[in-house]
Amino acid sequence: MVSIDRICIGGYRNIDYSELNLQQLTALLAPNNYGKSNILNAIMFASTFLHAPSDVKRQMMKDSSCIPINSKIAGTPFYFEIEGRLESERCFLYRYSFDWYQQIGKDKTGKDGQIIGEYLGIKDETKGKQKYRAIINRTLESAKYDATGRCNKEIAINSDELVLVKLTNNDNWNYLSIAKEIMEIHVASVDTIADPKGHFVPQKMLTTDGVQLVYDGFTQYLYQLKQEDEGEFDYLISLLTVLVPTIESVQPVKLSSIEKNVGKDVPYELPDLYDVYVKEKYNNQPTPFRFLSTGSMRMFFLVTSIVNARKTGTQILLVEELENSIHPDLMQSLLESIPLFMGDTKLLFTSHSPLLTKHMGYQQLYVGLPSDDGVVDFRTIKRSKLRSVLEIAGAGEMALGEYLFELMLDTEDDKSLIDAFFENKHVKKGGSND
After folding, report:
1. What span, in angstroms and rounded, lies between the C-alpha atoms of 16 and 9?
2. What integer is the mean pLDDT of 246-260?
3. pLDDT tens, 61-83?
4. Where are the alpha helices (DSSP H) in 52-85?
5. Which of 81, 180, 283, 325 is most deeply packed, by most CB within 10 A?
6. What is 5-59 written as a DSSP string?
7. What number of helices (H) and strands (E) belong to the chain?
């Protein structure tokens, strides 16, 4: 499975340019309205654009909810870059950029969005520091790829097409396997985790005779996981019982007691029905999982989503506000347990909890910093300044998280400390392929 080590995003809403070096767990830590969600949305947008057909790409390039309207960065092209490792012991660097749809002149004549740049470079992971060798290099004027050992073969390409996508249909290309590996990169967003009840409350469907039937894809997934990979299912449940000690057992079931009585000539038959029952320590019988607390359901849904992400080869899993409905003690257990079963999947999540600094290293935390111009700014603490930050926090009888939030919110007195304590603000590398 391809592993993603670094991701860059820019030209989206109020994001000029942000760069994240991904650990197995990486958090965007900031108060509300600092752009945490925009970072996740931009990454999801970029992944969707990569895999979308041309007609969808054209629509995405004129999506008014994504086009930057911040005064400082209005007109900035969208930019996406990922760097990582392939299964073939090679490192890769891939990026693309496009101009958004614009309205030009006094009459506001529409100008369609267009892809203006694309690059794919590879290098041998075993040879230490080495420059990337281009196998795709595209500018607004031309698009070229490596067909014979040099990246000089021109390819005809439309303004709503990516060269990488087009070359995956060229069975004779020497780097076809690499292109296909990159095209298989998958980003998933657990966007319903804030209210997981819907995943455990069976959905109602009304039949022609007025009888209500139920089904739910999440419960079906658990049932099939138990049938097809019982070891993985048992591992998932053992982890869940560590995180929620009152749970003794979990049993997904097929509700076969409901008689459908469907005739052979019926053009569509409703899917089988499933539910999940849990036995709690203090109950004398199992109950439907949806009877548990929201926090317990949320924990279960998150753990299952991570297991599924690893099994399906998902490279990045995006989660909003991981700490919602989870007790701080359970959060510590969760963060300690997640790396044990994530494989090469990376978890990127947002948080507004100062307590997070107790459980994660400084390299895992990207802190949202105040900005006079409203542009997103997430940075990590400088390694050389970590001790100084801890000493200042201690002198003020504050935990690290409390002090960081004071820095984030107190914009008048601490601006000089921000540049002193945090890594320099990232600047887009442009054509650098190192």
Report:
1. 8
2. 80
3. 999 999 999 999 999 999 999 99
4. 54-60
5. 81
6. EEEEEEEETTEEEEEEE--SEEEEE--TTSSHHHHHHHHHHHHHHHHS-HHHHHH
7. 12, 21
Q: Cα(183)–Cα(129) distance, rounded to whole angstroms?
A: 25
Q: Token pair for residue 70? A: 């911040």
Strand partners, 252: 276
Query: For 248, phi and psi rounded to 5 degrees?
Result: -100, -35
Closest CA to 245 of 299, 307, 308, 195: 299
Strand ranges for 235-306 from DSSP E: 247-254, 274-280, 287-288
Structure tokens at 307: 């297991």
Task: Tell me which residue of 224, 203, 211, 217 sits closest to 259, measured CA to CA.
Answer: 211
Q: Say if residue 212's pLDDT is above 60.
A: no
pTM score of the predicted model: 0.88
Distance CA 8, CA 1 (A): 20
Average pLDDT over residues 282-309: 84
Average pLDDT, the chain: 86
Integer Cα distance of 35 and 367 in angstroms:
11
Report how far residue 139's alpha carbon sits from residue 159's, in angstroms, rounded to the nearest whole number: 11
